[in-house]
Amino acid sequence: MRSTVLFLFILLVSSSLTAQKTPFENIQSEIQPEELKKDIDVWFDWIHATHPDLSYTVKDMDVFYNSIAQIKDSITPPLKVLEFWKRISPLNSQLSDGHTFVGYINSGIVEDYVSKGGVLFPFEVLFNKNKLVIQSFIDGKPTNYKGYQIVEINTVPIGTITASLLSRINGDSEEHRKALLQTKFAIFHMLMYGEQNEFSIKIRQGKKEKTISVSGLSILPKLYREETFEDNFNFKILDRDNAVLTIKSFWWDDKERYYDYMDNAFTSLKEKKISHLIIDIRENGGGDDEFWMKGILKYIADKPYRWGSNYKKKIIAKYRDAGEVIGSIKTGEIDTLIPVDMDITNTFKGKVSVLIGPYTYSSSILFANTIQDYSFGQLVGEPTGGKSGQTGSIQFFKMPYSGLMAVSPRFYLERPNGGNPTEPVVPDIVIDYDKLNPDELIDKLIKK
User: Where does the Tail specific protease domain lie (predicted)?
Assistant: First the structure.
């Protein structure tokens, strides 16, 4: 009896210690192989019970299933959760959808790591003409190395690094994964290559190369820092004809503040008699469709519109309507039209240009589709990295043993005019510009 009580006490203490692990400590935990294989099995069943049609995004289902089997077969000794993530995360590039991924590294893990003094690659980077270049320090401060191409990091060629990281990040396409990776580069580099206090970085400008030594920084990258309203929404009158409305997200907790801001912007357009409105959604990763319907199209739509056409959705218990069978697939077409609001006095009747690019995604793609399909304006810039047909209504799943998160949508939607949903949204006017100087696109557009 005494030994039984002692065993239960040890078990309770062990469980308590496990429960007290912080997010980053958790991904350092070691898990038994049979438990990791069970994680894969339950995730496999969950995604098939949630996703409306994996073949919509996965290019080769046989290769995908074989990859999963090979990952399971490779797990023979116990693995740390981080090593398990390295094994399963290459499935993300095969899933080929920004709304579908396995082994999601959430902000809690990143914040926990940095709060304990963990250091990261010190620079914010971006892909500029297919070259990874330095933009700033990760705290946003300027650097003398802005615009320098990265050739090597700690003797590892940058091509090797980006290939490894791009395979592990979610995204609709290679261009979309690049757009997402550049916002998470420091984090993904640490996860793949471990914590490194010092970085020897070979850089290139033109034909000249040099190697610099830079210490890692214990600072949250921009993506993981709390944003202000002004970080996401900005209205600016450029001259007597042109104004720019920059929207980096179709979401804000205080909806009324957002709607008031948009209403004031369109009032200003009318009062100043601006003839050309430029709406910049190049850095808009999505949000809630209501924000662009009520915050923008309310003022510029001159005819009734719909935000999509054909759809396919999986019936899951949480969203089941009367008569629907859980696990079944429902297909249909959106036939509801959003009417023109005849009561507002600050409608905009001038020319509308919407700037798009590889990072434009999710709800912002639905917005771009609607603008283009109903001729509410012209799209300008580069093709989106995301598909014109978008998945949505994402669901979350936590693997029982590793604690890693997975995400899956339950529907996909084609653009209002239909067409091939796997193609990107292509702008009406394609303009190449220097990504280190995003305002160059606006300048070129105005000159055209």
Answer: 216-432
Residue 130 falls inside a structural domain: yes
Can you tell me the distance from the alpha carbon of 24 to that of 116, in angstroms, rounded to the nearest whole number?
10
> Do 85 and 157 share a domain, yes or no?
no
Asked whether 181 and 166 are in contact (CB, 8 A), the reply is yes
CATH of the domain at 117: 2.30.42.10
Which DSSP string do the residues of 151-220 spell out, in sequence order?
EEETTEEHHHHHHHHHTTS--SSHHHHHHHHHHHHHHHHHHHH---SEEEEEEEETTEEEEEEEE-B-S-
CA–CA dist 291, 402 (Å, integer): 36
Q: How many domains does the chain have?
A: 3
As a whole number, mean pLDDT of residues 406-434 equals: 96
Residues 378 and 435 in one domain: yes
Same domain, yes or no: 278 and 371: yes
Kindly state whether residues 103 and 139 are assigned to the same domain: no
Residue 63 has φ and ψ, to the nearest 5°, of: -65, -40
103 plus 128 within the same structural domain: no
Residue 448: is it exposed, middle or buried by C-beta count within 10 angstroms (0-12/13-18/19+)?
exposed
Confidence tier at 213 by pLDDT (50, 70, 90): very high
Residue the block writes with tokens 């959760």: 81
Digit-coded pLDDT (tens) for 19-64: 568 888 888 999 999 999 999 999 999 999 999 999 999 999 999 9
In this structure, is residue 15 part of a structural domain? no
What would the pLDDT profile of 262-287 be if each residue is shown by its tens digit? 999 999 999 999 999 999 999 999 99
Q: Give the amino acid at 200.
A: S
pLDDT given for residue 229 in this prediction: 96
Instruction: Kindly report which listed range (2-6, 295-299, 400-404, 435-439) carries the lowest average pLDDT score.
Output: 2-6
**How many percent of the chain have pLDDT more than 90?**
87
> What is the length of the chain?
448
Same domain, 257 and 135: no
Contact partners, residue 387, CB within 8 Å, separation at least 6: 172, 173, 365, 421, 422, 423, 424
Taking the CA atoms of the chain, what radius of gyration do you get in angstroms? 24
Q: Which domain holds residue 428?
A: 229-447
Q: How many CB atoms lie within 10 A of CB 124?
A: 22
Mean pLDDT of the chain: 93
Chain segment 285-324, per-residue pLDDT in tens:
999 999 999 999 999 999 999 999 999 999 999 888 888 8
